[in-house]
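Page 47, continued from p. 46.
Same chain as before, 557 aa.
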Amino acid sequence: MIVKNCNQCNTGFEVTDEDRKFYERVSPVIGGKKFQIPQPTLCPLCRHQRRIVWRNERFLYRDKCGLCGKSIITMYPPESKFPIYCPDCFWSDKWDPLDYGREFDFTRPFFEQFKKLLDEVPQVSIFQGNSINSEYTINSINNKNCYLTSGADYNEDCLYGINTQRSKDCVDHYLIYDSELCYGCLDSARLHNCVGCQESENCSDSYFLYDCKNCKHCAFSCNLRNKEYIIFNQQVGKDEYERKLKEALSSLFKSPTWLFDSLKKVRDIAIHRAALILASENCIGDNIRNCKNSQYIFDAENIEDCKYCFYALDTKNSYDLSCAGWGSCFLYEVISSAQNNNVLFCSAVINVSDAIYCRCDWNSRNIFGSTSLHSQNSYVILNKQYSKVEYEKLVPKIIEHIQKTGEWGEFFPPHLSPFEYNRSMAIDYLPVSSEEAQKKGFRWSFEDEKTQTPATYELPDTISGVPESVINEILSCKNCSKNYRVVSQELRFHRKIDLPLPKLCWPCRLKNLIKARKPMKLFESACTKCNAKILTPYLPNTPLKVYCEKCYLETVY
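Result:
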């Protein structure tokens, strides 16, 4: 094992023998010559930070298609240099990404040439597919009547959510599965008619639960199993439960942060397991389900022989992934991808294989330094078509060149990203100041820092009496003072569940959802009950009760 210091934050990190075996395994062989992947120069978290600046989860803009001229919703800011095409035009035969091909220049660095290519080749306006009435969704497929969701698939009537799967009528949610009629829930599955529930499963008609399973008609409670009519962790009868619940809710909604404050109070008294690792074997990380032989993985499901993954599903033999997987194997330093094989240093690639340093490519193989390919392309370099023989002769020369320039083996530098730091996923998950971001080489946008318009309406503490015209009003966030609006679908949902409209804008609500989750890092600590050593996302000095797996199971079950 080798201990290295991160070139960005100076934190020490390990490179093990198994890591070196992986780098050896994914090192590409082209034209009969193998090109070794070097050991990383950044720690895992800084590598993740460098990748997620290439993903936009919630910033959308109004623009015009660069080909047909119709009005579109796009994830790219208006000042982007490249043409932005609506999905119909992008996937049509009206243009050819190979028309933008160019020769590789061995007198210039590769990243400089790739940046010029990115600035000229048209990009699809937004990443979404097979969706109905969901033009404001991003990084999502197969949704119906959804609004401002990202990483969300197979949902209906869902609004304001991240990483939601197969759910219906859910609002303000983060990482929920197979749920319906829920508000403010996160890290949960199979919920029905629930508000403010976290790390819970198979619960219904409940409010503010933490780590509860198979419960109904429960509220303000934690660590419950197979319970009904529990409030503040006390068993009561049906009538008393309904009376106490009504009393508790009646004074709750005066604070704009009522949702997050209430859930925090429940979390603070709960017993926390050191790490949430379910049905998994030989795994280290948190929020892991059905995984095997994987270390330092977070929000992971059905992955095997992986390491340093942040939200990865259905993936094998891969390292350093962010929001990637979905039927992939042998990936390294990849973000926003699905159904790939043998992919290195790529962003937003779908159903590609043997790809190196590419962005926004689909259904292609044997490609290097290319973008916007989507027509079963093969043997392409900088969007220029080659024969198999030509490709296998030229790519080794290019790699040798970028080895000399010091570019080989590193992910794209952050200044190449089409998104500034504060217009990307990074600002929500790893917030930094503009000065710190720019010091580390990230770009920053000051375009969004505009004077706010005074609110035209003050939201009441209940949904009762709110007029339909509220959807035309300008609201002011009680946290950041920025303006936001209520959409008609949102108003209908809040009336249905009898909850007040939010007094915080969606970005502030999202920040509070993320803050409610555990960090995607691990610390050496000790079990609160037996003092056994544990590896946990909770800080060693946390006031919370954090138990090792043995003590947790003995106490909760």
